[in-house]
Amino acid sequence: MGYVAVTAGEELIERAADLFESQRIGDSEDVDVDQIRDQFGRLTAQAMGEGGLYAPRLAALAVKQAQGDAVEAAFLLRAYRSTLERFDESVTVEPSEMIASRRVSPAFKDVPGGQILGATKDYTQRLLDFDLVDGDPTDPTEDWDVEDAGEPERLTNVTELLREEGLLHEPTAPDVEEPNDTTRESVTHPPERDEVLQELARGETGAVTALGYSALRGYGQVHPTLAEVRVGDLPVRIEHPYTGDDVTVAHTRVTESEAVVPVYEKREDPQFAFGYGLTFGRNERKAIGMTILDASIQLDGEAEPAEDAEFVLDTVDGMDAFGFIEHLKLPHYVTFQSILDRIRAIRERQGLREDGRVDDEQPAEPAVAGASDDD
């Protein structure tokens, strides 16, 4: 690396930051953090998932500070998370304990527990709603006559039905006693599946979607059927310090996706392969992308990008991509001057004029091979 310090001075840098903040304020009223949390839940969910920290109000603050840049907001959350002390670890919970507010199964029409459409506009036309320009605060459900249905039913995962029939191939269990916490220990390749799922859960939504899409477009062997997609609240439990009993201290909103892949033609025992995805907040697109990538990586192929765990995990992390792409804005004066000098020297040795033609009075020399501009 050949960076040099920015010579504009601390005052100019502070003024540039002030201008950035001024752009956020503008001429309109300041947006409250609670408004962002309540009305931009998808955005805060993306920031929480990629930041690896479930904190809706902090995510709203990060989105406000980042002026709506989800990756920047995730960066702020991940940086804040790194300053927090770890007091305890929660008890593992089963996804089947989820209190689902939405559950759809494209695989089975009459799924046990029923389909729960929940809040969605998946089946409506994507047209701009100009009524929102005036900010109509009317709740269209306020006149609904809703009866109290009692305690929510615990839903059986659709894939459990396939497991009971022996139709689902179980992924190989990691040969480890405890899962590696990838927020503390770097991933080494080849990664265990728990590491893959952790990294995908913190992956950048767009990258996970794009690589999952690549498999569907033919750059892979996985075209799954979604067993179900669920959105709901999972309990967070800790062990009571005195009684030792598990105590529910909070709930986290998550999105879960499970998919089956018909790869039976490649196995002696005809079974479905399996892909899984779970992420903070409501982010169905990312959860589905995770299932495709999880199933693809289990194939352990080398020819297709989505099946190469090292390629996928090194690409989907938004913080890594964000940093490496945006570092190009930093001063590269020294390295660029070196490249300029090298190219000018080559042209001079070849006798090239400004118009690209060879100067007849100077014999042309062969180009120098192997020139590198790696900075």
UniProtKB/TrEMBL annotation:
Biased composition (Basic and acidic residues): 181-192, 351-360
GO biological process: organic phosphonate metabolic process
Molecular functions per Gene Ontology: lyase activity
InterPro entries given in the database record: PhnI
Keyword set includes Lyase: yes
Pfam families, A to Z: PhnI
Keyword set, alphabetical order: Lyase
Statement: the UniProt record of this protein carries the keyword Lyase: yes
The name this protein goes by in its record: Carbon-phosphorus lyase
Source organism per UniProt: Haloarcula taiwanensis
